[in-house]
């Protein structure tokens, strides 16, 4: 696998950076110590500009190439998850209840590796904007950075991101034009009846049968309201009601996640949920409060940028290890907000066998970092060649 020689030469440094980041996770928008570590490294690499506190704790660094040309944005996420680590590793999290269980420590390291190489060689025209983003897991850090005017401020013309993927063979790249990840919306329904003694249900209005019926009825949206050629997930993931076996609760609630790809399906499912809940509430004589929150939009890759990214990936891993029509999945990504503002591409890179992301025993494979850094570097050099 032709990892760039110069990047391979400092791969041990990348491992050290990554393991430091892994041991010191931060959550959400408050990635200030992570950002400070990133800035320290970028200054040592000799990048041309460093801009801090974009989207609360985000960092954008600029590397100037040789001569005029467009600005390519490369994004890495920095935040961790609110989980207790169970790896037992020497570099395990030192912060109780927080861990890098999704590999964002590795993503940040890959982009730092690319930054070091690109600042040394500058074998490209135009500019590179290195985007270190907080709060991918929640709070939409990408949107915060876009709302701070990042794209216009740094004249970014296209933008790319890379995510590790356990279970996919090491070094295999996967992407696809069009939607690659889903929109994610969140539902909470609070059902209120009349509580009382479990022995006298006729004196009560029990919310439990209403909740059970609502949950079952919501499953008909996918089976009966959706075109079979479209994709949609409606998953009820929480039900909370009751405190004792002889008490009929006054109220309870349930929550769900909804995943879709198109505005039309997204509108239809919200409308049908509200209609079904209202009808079920009336039939059981309860009241129902619906809180429906629109989350991240779908992550939609641009066809031309997918072709560029796939070509760079083939330079690194070979043609047999790159799929540019891998299909889409129902996960979600706030990189979608950046792709709403500029064309670009989101890719996965395999890190081999091991626990999946968001698992307490997950750890990023350090051998992937030079592969990802080489991908970012080759993408820039191929897209904006000198001369």
Which structural traits does this protein have?
four-stranded antiparallel sheet, 2 domains, Aminopeptidase, eight-stranded mixed sheet, 16 strands, 387 residues, Alpha-Beta Plaits, alpha/beta
Summarize the structure in words.
There is one protein chain. With 387 residues, the chain is α/β, with parallel strands linked by helices. The protein has two domains: 5-180 and 299-383, Zn peptidases (Aminopeptidase, 3-Layer(aba) Sandwich), CATH 3.40.630; 183-294, Alpha-Beta Plaits (2-Layer Sandwich), CATH 3.30.70. It has twelve helices and 16 strands. It has helices at residues 5-9, 11-23, 32-45, 104-121, 141-147, 150-153, 207-218, 220-225, 263-284, 303-317, 335-341, 368-383; strands at 49-54, 58-64, 71-77, 127-133, 156-165, 173-174, 178-181, 183-192, 196-197, 232-241, 247-248, 251-260, 287-294, 299-301, 322-323, 344-350. An eight-stranded mixed beta sheet has the order 1-2-4-3-5-16-6-15, sandwiched between helices. The protein has a four-stranded antiparallel beta sheet with strand order 10-12-8-13, with helices on one face. A two-stranded antiparallel ribbon has the order 7-14. Helix 4 crosses helix 12 and helix 7 (207-218) runs antiparallel to helix 9 (263-284). The longest helix is centred in the C-terminal third of the chain and has 22 residues, at 263-284. The model has no long low-confidence stretch (mean pLDDT 97).
């Amino acid at each position: 696998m032709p990892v760039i020689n110069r990047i391979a030469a400092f791969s041990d440094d990348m491992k050290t950076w990554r393991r430091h980041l892994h041991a010191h996770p931060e959550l959400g928008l408050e990635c200030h110590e992570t950002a400070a570590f990133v800035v320290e490294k970028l200054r040592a690499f000799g990048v041309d500009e460093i801009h801090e506190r974009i989207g609360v704790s985000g960092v954008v660094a600029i590397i100037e190439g040789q001569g005029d040309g467009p600005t390519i944005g490369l994004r890495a996420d920095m935040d961790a998850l609110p989980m207790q680590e169970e790896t037992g590793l020497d570099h395990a999290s030192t912060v109780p209840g927080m861990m890098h269980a999704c590999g964002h420590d590795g993503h940040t390291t890959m982009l730092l590796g690319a930054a070091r190489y690109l600042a040394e060689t500058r074998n490209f025209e135009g500019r590179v904007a290195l985007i270190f983003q907080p709060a991918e897991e929640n709070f939409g850090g990408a949107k915060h950075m876009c709302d701070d005017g990042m794209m216009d401020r740094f004249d970014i013309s296209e933008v790319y991101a890379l995510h590790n993927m356990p279970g996919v063979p090491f070094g295999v790249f996967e992407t696809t034009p069009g939607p690659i990840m889903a929109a994610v919306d969140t539902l909470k329904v609070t059902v209120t009846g009349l509580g009382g003694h479990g022995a006298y249900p006729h004196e009560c209005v029990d919310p439990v049968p209403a909740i059970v019926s609502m949950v079952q009825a919501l499953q008909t949206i996918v089976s009966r309201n959706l075109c079979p050629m479209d994709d949609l997930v409606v998953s009820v993931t929480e039900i909370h009601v009751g405190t004792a076996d002889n008490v009929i609760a006054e109220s309870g609630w349930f929550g769900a996640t909804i995943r879709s790809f198109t505005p039309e399906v997204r509108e239809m499912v919200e409308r049908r949920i509200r209609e079904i809940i209202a009808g079920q509430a009336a039939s059981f004589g309860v009241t129902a409060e619906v809180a429906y929150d629109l989350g991240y939009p779908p992550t939609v890759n641009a066809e031309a940028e997918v072709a560029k990214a796939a070509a760079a990936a083939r330079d690194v891993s070979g043609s047999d290890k790159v799929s540019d029509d891998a299909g889409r999945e129902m996960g979600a990504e706030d990189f979608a907000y950046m792709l709403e503002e500029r064309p670009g591409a989101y890719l996965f890179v395999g890190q081999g066998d091991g626990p999946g992301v968001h698992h307490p025993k997950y750890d990023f494979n350090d051998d992937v970092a030079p592969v990802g850094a080489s991908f970012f570097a080759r993408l820039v050099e191929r897209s904006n060649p000198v001369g």
